[in-house]
From TrEMBL:
<dbReference type="GO" id="GO:0016987">
    <property type="term" value="F:sigma factor activity"/>
</dbReference>
<dbReference type="InterPro" id="IPR013325">
    <property type="entry name" value="RNA_pol_sigma_r2"/>
</dbReference>
<keyword id="KW-0731">Sigma factor</keyword>
<dbReference type="InterPro" id="IPR007630">
    <property type="entry name" value="RNA_pol_sigma70_r4"/>
</dbReference>
<dbReference type="InterPro" id="IPR039425">
    <property type="entry name" value="RNA_pol_sigma-70-like"/>
</dbReference>
<keyword id="KW-0238">DNA-binding</keyword>
<dbReference type="InterPro" id="IPR014284">
    <property type="entry name" value="RNA_pol_sigma-70_dom"/>
</dbReference>
<dbReference type="GO" id="GO:0003677">
    <property type="term" value="F:DNA binding"/>
</dbReference>
<protein>
    <recommendedName>
        <fullName>RNA polymerase sigma factor</fullName>
    </recommendedName>
</protein>
<dbReference type="InterPro" id="IPR036388">
    <property type="entry name" value="WH-like_DNA-bd_sf"/>
</dbReference>
<dbReference type="InterPro" id="IPR013324">
    <property type="entry name" value="RNA_pol_sigma_r3/r4-like"/>
</dbReference>
<comment type="similarity">
    <text>Belongs to the sigma-70 factor family. ECF subfamily.</text>
</comment>
<dbReference type="InterPro" id="IPR007627">
    <property type="entry name" value="RNA_pol_sigma70_r2"/>
</dbReference>
<dbReference type="Pfam" id="PF04542">
    <property type="entry name" value="Sigma70_r2"/>
</dbReference>
<dbReference type="GO" id="GO:0006352">
    <property type="term" value="P:DNA-templated transcription initiation"/>
</dbReference>
<dbReference type="InterPro" id="IPR000838">
    <property type="entry name" value="RNA_pol_sigma70_ECF_CS"/>
</dbReference>
<feature type="domain" description="RNA polymerase sigma-70 region 2">
    <location>
        <begin position="29"/>
        <end position="96"/>
    </location>
</feature>
Amino acid sequence: MSVVPNESAGSDSATVESSAAATLLRQVVAEYHRPLHRFLTRLLLGQQDLAEDLVQETFLRAWRHADKLAADPSKIAPWLYTVARHVAIDAMRARQARPPEVSLPDLNRVPTTDDEMDRVVNVHAVRLALTKISPEHRAVLHEMYYRSASVAEAAVRLGIPEGTVKSRAFYAVRALHAALGSTESS
């Protein structure tokens, strides 16, 4: 805190008094900052950031009343603690008067079920991956997943035994997973 002398006052005694008050306040801040912070932190149930703000507010009020405090230095500590207590009460009343702050969830992390763009991207990825697997595997997947055919129906349509349909379906799904993994990284 620096004091700029008031040149318009034209009085050297006012400058000397304000310089003495500024020096006194520097000493007060150095001596009482930590104790006031602890006092306010206890009053505010551990809210250290708010306590720091209120310590600054207390010292600002002390600065505004520097001449009165300099007149009787023995009353500085009681005055500071009284002002700090009043500032804390005012801050708590102000917080109770307004509605509580609500934190919104991160909407980028909320899963959506109806996201059309995700569906389009997924369809495109599956179509691209289907081009990377063998025609036999692709045909089995087409029958069983696209046309919703049973193993027996797919065997009849494809003209292959049911065991072959089951085997190709198993390996087709594995091949499709592998192809999807390679399309996601590109």
